[in-house]
Amino acid sequence: MSRRLFIQQASLFTLTLTSAKLLSACTPSSNSSNSDVANIKEINFGVLSTESQVNQKPIWEPFAAAMSKEIGITIKPFYVTQYAAVIEAMRFGKVQVAWLGGKSYIEAVKIAKAEAFAQVVSEDGTKGYYSHLITNKDNPIAAEAKAEGGDKYVVKNAAKLTFAFNDPNSTSGFLVPSYYIFTKNNVDPKKAFKRLIFAGNHEACALAVANKKVDVATVSSEALERLQITNSEARNKIEVIWKSPMIPSDPVAYRQDLPADIKKKFQNFFYNYKDEKVLAPFKIASFAPATDKIWNTIRELEIAKAIQETQSKADISEQDKKQKLAELNEQLKKIQTN
Questions:
Q1: pLDDT higher for 11 or 334?
Q2: Which whole number is the average pLDDT over 129-143?
Q3: In this structure, what DSSP letter does residue 200 have?
């Protein structure tokens, strides 16, 4: 999406953060007064739409209403269908707070001044979820892929398969399966498959499989649970053929330059909100306090993936390769000792 097109689309969403100081160098260290709250009439809350907005609105509007009441500021869900869009919205001050995925959060830290303060806790009390490979139950490959191990089957038979990733900025829909299935096996998915597409979100990946548009796709365990609610007919057509190691659950983040008193209000709301009726559609129980380093495992995956890709490159000199590997290993060391 071009910056011009994004800004045109984003302008359709009203953001009344009336003071320029909020969007500029309003630093976390500043002693914000209650007047900051009085000056801010609305805040846009970024929503990464893992499915269509039609399905998202009924579950998000009650949550946003509860947030608005507790915080004392109107909170408007800002729906996007591409991960990059919410990062850019945060970067340019169109969004001040967002519920992100692990990989998209890491990108938002780099370019959009994002700061995690809460983490999703699932209904079973865990703080994690999984990436899956899925296929249609009626697809001739289903039984063999499940028996052999979906990851092994896909790597061995990629040239005969059509495959869908979610989005390049998706943790469970791209980064995790890319690393564990392809990078670790020295396979380039861009070259390996009969046809490779990026479907755009988890729901689109699941429906592509359910409707036999692709043989195999990536999807999160959370998205499959939601699909059982929103489209059980489609869910019942899907067979899971691979499950990843656990991924840290989603972070909720605000911009670092949000006034301190408003940050505190968001913290109080998320740490204490437990309305089962409102949270049930999200398939979560609550939110826990969180710090940035929780998602270091995602950073480690990205760097490990980059190291393996650099090692296999044939189009750069040994000197350049050595330098790049040294830089990546230094980055990894910093994360691991943080």
A1: 334
A2: 96
A3: S
Q: Which residue has the tokens 């380093």?
A: 293
pLDDT of residue 15: 34
Residue 139 tokens read as 């697809």
Q: What's 184's DSSP letter?
A: G
How far is Cα 236 from Cα 210, in angstroms, rounded to an integer?
8
The partner residues of 116 in beta bridges, in order of sequence, read 253
- Tell me how crowded residue 77 is: count the other CB atoms within 10 A of its CB: 20
- C-alpha 325/C-alpha 60 separation (Å) is 43
- C-alpha–C-alpha distance, residues 73 and 69, integer Å: 7
Q: Looking at the predicted structure, is the pLDDT value of residue 18 above 80? A: no
The answer on pLDDT for 166 being more than 90 is yes
pLDDT of 54 reads 77
| 271, 282, 102, 179: CA torsion to nearest 10 | 150
Q: How far is CA 273 from CA 49, 222, 266, 279, 319, in A?
A: 22, 20, 10, 9, 54
Contact indicator for 254, 266 with CB cutoff of 8 Å: yes
Over range 296-323, report the average pLDDT: 88
CATH second-level architecture of 3-126+249-290?
Answer: 3-Layer(aba) Sandwich (3.40)
Instruction: Decide if pLDDT at 287 tops 90.
Output: yes
Output the CA torsion 216→221→222→228 (10° steps): 70
Residue type, 206: A
Each residue of 258-275: pLDDT tens digit? 999 999 999 999 999 999
CA separation for the pair 103, 106 (Å, rounded): 5
Residues 279 and 236: beta-carbon distance below 8 Å: no
CB atoms within 10 A of CB 301: 22
* Domain range 128-247, its CATH number among 3.40.190.10, 3.90.1150.10, 2.30.30.90, 3.30.460.80: 3.40.190.10
